[in-house]
Amino acid sequence: MTCHGQLLQNILVSEFRYLGVFTVSSRSFKCSLVHGKRCFYAAVNGLFGKLLILASEQVILELVRAKRIPILLHGLECFQLGRQTLDFIRLHL
Q: For the chain, how big is the Rg over CA atoms in Å?
């Protein structure tokens, strides 16, 4: 197998990104939510920073629900999620 004309040999990675979902190296299939959580919190903090003085709490929460929750949930419908992951998602919905 080659990449940009160079032969790929003995390349080991702990995780890789495909279509915005990070897959982790493991004996069973696992995906990482670390990057999704980081993007979600960054997006929400940016929203709070711009609207905290201008808008009510209800408006901000509706914007988070409508515009930022999809960042957190991107690609998750393809996976069988563990209990901790489901608890995290339920907490933030």
A: 18
CA distances from 17 to 13, 21, 48 (A): 11, 5, 29
Sign of the Cα pseudo-torsion (87, 80, 39, 53, in order): negative
Is the pLDDT at 15 greater than 70? The verdict is yes
The pLDDT tens digits for 52-63 are 888 888 888 888
Query: Residue 82: what pLDDT?
Result: 73
- Neighbour tally for 56: CB within 10 Å: 9
Q: Which of 38, 92, 93, 65 is nearest to 57 (CA)?
A: 65
| This prediction's pTM | 0.58
CB atoms within 10 A of CB 72: 20
